[in-house]
Amino acid sequence: DPFEQDPVRDPRLITHTAKPRNAEPPNEELDRDFYTPNELFYVRNHMWVPVVAEKEADSHTLTVELPDGETVQYSLADLRKKFRVHRITAVLQCSGNRRSDMTRHARKTTGLQWGVGAISNAEWEGVRLADVLADAGLRVADVAGMTKNQTSPQPSGSSSQGATDDDSSEVTDPNTHHVQFSGLEAYGASIPLSTAIDPRADVLLAFGMNGSPLPRDHGYPLRAVVPGHVAARSVKWLSRIVVSDEESSSQWQRRDYKSFGPNEGPNPDWDSAPAIQEMPITSAVTNVWVGDCIRGGRVPWLGAGRGPGRGAVDAAAVEKDVDSSTNTSTSTTDKGQEKDKPPPLAEPIALQGYAYSGGGREICRVDVSLDGGKTWDQAELVGDYAGVPRGGGGRGSGGSKHWAWKRWRYTGQLPQGPAQCTTVVVKATDDAYNTQPESHAGIYNVRGNLATAWHRVRVCPQL
Ligand code: MTE
Ligand code: MO
């Protein structure tokens, strides 16, 4: 049993499959903090977890192969010693995040039926892939082929291990090449070379996560972290990097992580679609409180002195207006029962969730509807991501672009009306004015990738 040595998992994680282990944090833990705690970070494994003993970690070897076939090896200790260490706060999100929504609202999809938790946010510590490739001897001319340039400055004190100009390997156009990553258990994927060498793309070879060594489930002792990209490219247990004029030949590059038209069926022309790289925009409601839950102080950020968002109803005013109401519980499924009872009084409602866009695009606005999308209001964006530019150092420094999620909060009043249940909807907009599609039907694909439609949650206060 190759899974025998898999690590023990936090019991709070919701398990989709045990072997290989695939699990997501429960909604109430998912975005409790800006940084997802390591033991609650979602886990997506295609195979077993390779065993690297602690005492062998420093000698874990990364092999870098250049287009001319030359190889250079770095131990983990070499990486730490030779290169400047960077800390980047970035989300990882599986292309299957929210797939169960697509299944529920459109049609059957194949693959793990993730809820809204195949996404997490962490501060990653590691060295820049661009620095390592340059040190290994990769030289990349600019796209026009005019200048021959090092991809990034050599770190000071660079040892003789790195390549000299004589044994460097030149690529003339970074757009025609790829950087392939392989993990110890045979998983593999690739990214374009142009991303790998872009210092503003912040691609890391990471050994630290939220101030600790990488946990085994997340790639101990070394993984790629490709911010803003589908997490399938952030290869764990990284052991080999190949710079090539071809993408990784793995099924995860050539088939699984692609998306097709709603009509294209289970056997599309795989080569006709590009591999998913930068992620589209998405958002989700993670927590809903109604009525007495709010009055009873169960909303962590109400009463902690944080005001409601733009356009939202002040919590105290809400309380006064609905003092006589006895409504209490909520349901975050859309299977609420319609009961034959008189219309409820307006209830205060509090919501929280996350929004995220790929490619480093910043979330600028989160729209919330309490009536299924007829009327809208804006949520408050939590100010825990300052977007401090590179070099700021420390937690929250974020990196060159907006790689983290934005958490959002909303307080309002449920609409009064004959229906007891209502549908809460959330959608986000990024700095390129990308926003989410209204329905899953229009973006349906058999594999259920990129299920980014408006997130709808049925809320049924019970009398
Ligand atoms: N790397 C290896 N070596 N093996 C894997 O199975 N899964 C990929 C990626 N890297 C995978 C891998 C996928 S599809 C995802 S979504 C992320 O790892 C999940 O990373 P996490 O488990 O740290 O959240
Ligand atoms: Mo994934």
Major sheet size, sense and barrel closure:
5 strands, mixed
Helical proportion, percent range: 10-25%
Which oligomeric state applies?
A: single chain
The total strand number stands at: 24
Radius of gyration: 24 Å
Approximate strand percentage: 25-35%
Overall shape: it is globular
* Ligands present: ligand MTE, molybdenum atom
Overall mean pLDDT stands at 85
SS summary, helix count: 8
- Poorly predicted residue ranges: 143-160, 304-339, 386-394
What's the end-to-end separation, in Å? 52 Å
Strand order of the largest sheet: 5-4-16-11-12
Structural class: mainly beta
Describe this entry's structure for a reader.
The protein is mainly beta and 463 residues long. 10% of the residues lie in helices and 28% in strands. A 5-stranded mixed β-sheet has the order 5-4-16-11-12. Strands 6, 7, 13, 14 and 15 form a 5-stranded antiparallel β-sheet that branches. Strands 17-18-22-21 form a 4-stranded antiparallel β-sheet. Strand 11 (178-183) and strand 12 form a beta hairpin. The chain is globular. It starts with 13 loop residues before the first strand and ends with a strand.
